[in-house]
Amino acid sequence: MAAASSKGAAPKKAVAPKKAAKKSAPAKAVARKASASGTPAKATAKKTSASSALAKATAKKPTPTSAKESAPAKKAAPAAVTPAKATPAKAAPAKAAPTKITPAKPPRNESHTALVRRARRINRELGEVYPYAHPELDFENPFQLVVATVLSAQTTDLRVNQTTPALFGKYPTPEDLAAANPEEVEEILRPTGFFRAKTKSVIGLSRALRDDFGGEVPGRLEDLVKLPGVGRKTAFVVLGNAFGRPGITVDTHFQRLVRRWQWTDQTEPDKIEAAIGGLFPKSEWTMLSHHVIFHGRRICHARKPACGACPIAPLCPAYGEGETDPEKAQKLLKYEKGGFPGQRLNPPQSYLDAGGIPAPPLGATIPSAPAPGASAPGAPAPVSAAPAPGSPAREGG
Fold it and tell me: Of the candidates 101, 102, 121, 119, which has an alpha carbon nearest to the alpha carbon of residue 111?
């Protein structure tokens, strides 16, 4: 019984381990599952670390898209600056930097029609700049104007205006000057230079007016040029300003400016007059002369034009021949443009309204003048504040 019981107990003991094994197997399986589940966690960690590494690499090295987007941003900066530099040249050529002005350069084979349009546009612009343009010789009648114009050869209108009051005060009519003592007239005209030749001319033309025209200045070109000392230029000055008959005054300023603007390449006054006369209506000839002469005296000087302060710089094919710096060019301006007195002792009211200053009489000082300028040859020291002409040649108009 004991054996039997022992035999029967044996299976019971053997079963217990099997059951324990069966019970432990799920535990192992669970552990295996747990370990198996740990594998994705590691893989996930690896993936996370890989994604972070990719993020760092992306931060260090920009993607091609961002590089493309940043490239136009760098190129856009100069593009934004370019209009800012170009804008002042169009808005105010007189104050703009010299490199910003693009002057008009006429084509080599410019047609006559294109030349006419270009010339008339410049004249219109000058008319806006100098609406008060006028003859810069003081006169009260045709006789005074013809005498003053003859005296203006090889000197300034200022010097003539400072001299003629004494002359006309003593000899107010052609008859008076025709009978004058030449030595006395010479002494009066000495400040104008070439006073002996000028004395001979004014006395001679006074005698011609007295003897041939009844003491009156003729109003025809063919009669005026017969007077001693009177040529076509002087005749047109008288016709245009004393009689209201159109004429082109080809003085030194007019000659050099129309060539500088390439309106003509002629050098003789008669041919220049004919060439320019064909570009403009006859009714504009007199004021055209005033506009050009005014501009030549104030801004477009012979030796050093004030290009940087010129209001028609964008239209000028010769821009750059003179001073292009705006500040330096401003200092070259003369007469009312530079704050100096003008050439007439008794200028028109329109000139005074525009800020013009009357010229001083002979021997007077100018305490209010902004800066001293050079005076014409033979001028007394007190009037040295008056600005010098732009050319050593004849400045009259």
Answer: 119
